[in-house]
């Protein structure tokens, strides 16, 4: 536990984080979590350490882009950090602190494109949605989980998985929760945007859930410019979505049968006219 805390404190900048990961520090944390999986305090400290190790900033992202270095999130994922973090969430679902730290670690890991699908396949999506369900009144858990879901939804694979698991409804519930502050509303809008962007069916579903009316109310009373812009962008995205076509799709699926019926009817009418002329 103390070793995890020390590593967490040492990971104060990107150079230090890179050095710790290169020296096998993350692997040591994962090993501690594996050997003490039932120890809540160790899991809590370990999740905090992994969250700090996975942290990046714009300077780091520019550096790896310029040098072609492997993203630290990918290194951590290859060392089993994502899987072990998800297991900690599943082992202690009622512990809010573990859920917060683990959600933040998953959020940072999901900044790398290569790790997003892996986290989704390792159970990260289900664990994040479970955290939101189990800690509905804890805004810190809600916000951290929403940030993680937003990053994961940048992958089309995860996007579909989150929507199928009821993610749209969960995010809407968080946005509408009594007492939700502007930060929670803003990250909710960002997450919804990531979920429905490029998915017309999901956008229409969000509209049926009352998303358009709710977003317009947020636009009308947004206390910050960032929330106003975020909600406006989502409104514009939904407005660009056509009208509900569920019944239209059903008509298309029935059209071959209806076409055949129409042909038989027209053929019968032609025969009747022929008999009338003969008489």
Task: Walk me through what this model shows.
This protein has 279 residues and is an all-alpha fold. The chain is 80% helix and 0% strand. It is built from 18 helices and no strands. The chain has helices at 2-10, 14-22, 25-35, 40-54, 58-67, 72-78, 81-91, 96-109, 113-121, 124-134, 139-152, 156-164, 167-176, 182-196, 200-208, 211-221, 225-239, 246-278. α8 (96-109) runs parallel beside α11. It is globular. Residues 244-263 have low confidence and may be disordered.
Overview in brief:
This protein has about 280 residues and is an all-alpha fold.
Chart the SSEs and their pairings.
Blueprint: H1 2-10, H2 14-22, H3 25-35, H4 40-54, H5 58-67, H6 72-78, H7 81-91, H8 96-109, H9 113-121, H10 124-134, H11 139-152, H12 156-164, H13 167-176, H14 182-196, H15 200-208, H16 211-221, H17 225-239, H18 246-278
Helix pairs in contact: 1-4, 3-4, 4-8, 7-8, 7-10, 8-11, 10-11, 11-14, 13-14, 14-17, 16-17
Tally of helical segments: 18
What's the number of extended β-strand segments?
A: 0
Low-confidence stretches: 244-263
| Cα end-to-end separation | 102 Å
Structural category: mainly alpha
What is the average of the pLDDT values? 86
Q: What percent of the residues sit in helical stretches (DSSP H or I)? A: over 70%
Query: What Rg is obtained from the alpha carbons, in whole angstroms?
Result: 25 Å
Net shape: globular
The biggest sheet amounts to:
none
Q: Strand percentage, roughly? A: under 5%
Reading the helices and strands in chain order gives HHHHHHHHHHHHHHHHHH
């Amino acid at each position: 536990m103390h070793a995890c805390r020390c590593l967490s404190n040492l990971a104060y900048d990107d150079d230090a984080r890179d050095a710790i990961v290169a020296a096998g520090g993350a692997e040591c944390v994962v090993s501690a979590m594996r050997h003490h999986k039932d120890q809540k305090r160790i899991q809590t400290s370990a999740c905090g350490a992994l969250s700090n190790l996975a942290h990046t900033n714009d300077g780091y992202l520019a550096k790896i882009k310029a040098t072609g270095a492997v993203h630290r999130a990918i290194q951590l994922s290859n060392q089993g950090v994502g899987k072990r973090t998800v297991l900690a969430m599943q082992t202690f679902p009622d512990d809010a602190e573990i859920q917060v730290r683990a959600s933040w670690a998953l959020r940072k890991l999901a900044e790398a494109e290569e790790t997003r699908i892996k986290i989704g396949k390792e159970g990260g999506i289900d664990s994040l949605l479970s955290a939101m369900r189990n800690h509905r009144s804890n805004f810190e858990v809600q916000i951290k989980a929403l940030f993680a879901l937003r990053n994961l939804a940048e992958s089309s694979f995860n996007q579909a998985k989150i929507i199928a698991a009821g993610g749209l409804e969960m995010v809407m519930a968080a946005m509408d929760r009594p007492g939700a502050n502007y930060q929670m509303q803003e990250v909710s809008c960002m997450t919804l945007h990531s979920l429905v962007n490029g998915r017309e069916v999901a956008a229409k579903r969000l509209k049926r859930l009352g998303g358009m009316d709710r977003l317009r109310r947020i636009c009308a009373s947004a206390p910050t410019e960032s929330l106003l812009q975020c909600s406006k962008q989502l409104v514009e995205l939904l407005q660009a979505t056509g009208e509900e076509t569920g019944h239209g799709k059903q008509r298309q699926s029935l059209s071959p049968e209806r076409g055949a019926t129409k042909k038989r009817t027209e053929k019968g009418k032609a025969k009747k006219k022929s008999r009338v002329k003969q008489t």
